[in-house]
């Protein structure tokens, strides 16, 4: 019987260790089974020893009667231990079936996630156990204008926070875009444009008494014809009227996004007359200090040009943009067939706020 106790003890310890490592209730129950065998064997040994000792005592001794009952008392004690451990395991099994988790761990994880930059709110959070695996799913609200990369970064951070508490958790993060401020007209315009696969910039909202007028530039795929582009933008405008009920008028300027064929086979052109015209336009434009690094690509019939211009460092971005717009307009008049103009503005060293 002693050998049986040693073997059962060894097996029980190994099974309990593996059950904790793999988070397995089946192995834990098996470890409990061998533990009860140990206690039962111990009760038998205690009972036999008590009876043996009791027989050595004289008849009528109070200890003799109690020693003869020691086997039954020890059996009741072991039964109480087994019942307690069984109830504890039963509760764990029921908790697993009901997806119950420690409230403190769940609360700590939720507080950490809600504190993440870019997270407006944690809308839903659930943890459930399935055998050795732990599954976590959540719904996060983030600003609707966040880019795909920003949303993915927030989801990664949320998963990492979960793994700090539950290392092997299988985590699913669902992202929902929401408006940060219901009164943000620009936010709503850009969101509505993104739903149609369009870009919007230069957005202006004019509030005239109780009337709201919207003006903006809308970027459409350059391969569309004007009818297709107009129909797409009209659908976008109708969505805006529903999104922003206060709007009474929307005026859009349609322009190509310019990424239909980002990579093009071109040749570097050496056109002295185009360079001369560029320099002349820059010299005639107020605010331009000098022009350099002129590059001409494409072909003679439809060239694309790019160049750098230095301006006063104190020039505002708005005024700088007006300067480049004036240069582009003048160049299109003086250089027929010009395809694309890219002007890089940079601050001129040595010029102050004069």
From TrEMBL:
Q: Which GO terms describe its biological process?
A: intracellular zinc ion homeostasis
Q: Which UniProt keywords apply?
A: Membrane, Transmembrane, Transmembrane helix, Transport
**Cation efflux protein cytoplasmic domain span:** 107-177, 195-256, 275-347
Q: Does the keyword Membrane apply?
A: yes
Any Gene Ontology CC annotation? plasma membrane
Q: What SUPFAM superfamilies does this protein's entry cite? A: Cation efflux protein cytoplasmic domain-like, Cation efflux protein transmembrane domain-like
GO MF annotations for this entry?
cadmium ion transmembrane transporter activity; ferrous iron transmembrane transporter activity; zinc efflux antiporter activity
Q: Which Pfam families match?
A: Cation_efflux, ZT_dimer
| Main localization category | membrane
| Compartment(s) | Membrane
State the membrane topology.
Multi-pass membrane protein
Residue ranges spanning the membrane: these are 38-54, 66-87
Give all residue intervals belonging to the Cation efflux protein transmembrane domain. Answer: 2-98
What the record says about family reads:
Belongs to the cation diffusion facilitator (CDF) transporter (TC 2.A.4) family.
Name the record gives this protein: Cation diffusion facilitator family transporter
